[in-house]
Amino acid sequence: MKTQTLDQIENLTRNFAEHYRTCESLFEAKRRELEALDKKYELSITRETGHLRAQFKALFTAIQSSPELFESPRTHVFHGFKVGFQRSKGSLSWKDEAAVLEKIHDRFGKDSIAYIATTEKPDKKFLSILPQETLAELGITLEEDGDKVMIKDMATTDKAISNALKSALQEVAV
Asked: pLDDT tens digits for 71-84?
């Protein structure tokens, strides 16, 4: 590699500094424009999200109060949204984990490993396929079993809209 003079290094530094400052200016301009764009749409998005949540609650309540409209077929597609009822998978719960484990061991013997996670916790995935009577014998309660309201966009959904609807659903479900 050829030795450089201090003047050559100073010239290379000047060229580097010019490009560095140009990039810095471009990034700062981009940041300012994105901030302005956020401000431009923030109020409209907030307002429209409020309307969307209100409409979601109204639609949810209308579906929930009219199950007879969804007996057959259980869902309908209107304006690109599938609405109606779908079967809920439910969730398993128990009060005394040790007692449930003991009952699983007693009931299934060597096969109990299929129903118990390796951490010696009842395995909800495998227990959920058991009949409700067997679950009751084991001291397990099946919660939220049955139909639940479904409102599903048939097209790709924006995550921000999904999050707004998820929080609206939680408010309605309470």
From this structure: 999 999 999 999 99
* Kind and range of the H or E run holding 122: strand 121-122
- Contact yes or no for 118/41 (Cβ under 8 A): no
Instruction: Give the DSSP per-residue string, 41-91.
Output: HHHHHHHHHHHHHHHHHHHHHHHHT-GGGGSSSSEEEETTEEEEEEEE--E
pTM: 0.53
CB 75 within 8 A of CB 84: yes
- pLDDT of 108-144, one tens digit each? 998 988 998 877 888 888 898 888 889 889 999 888 7
The Cα–Cα gap between 170 and 174 comes to 6
Distance of CA 138 to the CA centre of its chain: 31
CA dihedral 12, 16, 18, 24 (to 10 degrees): -170
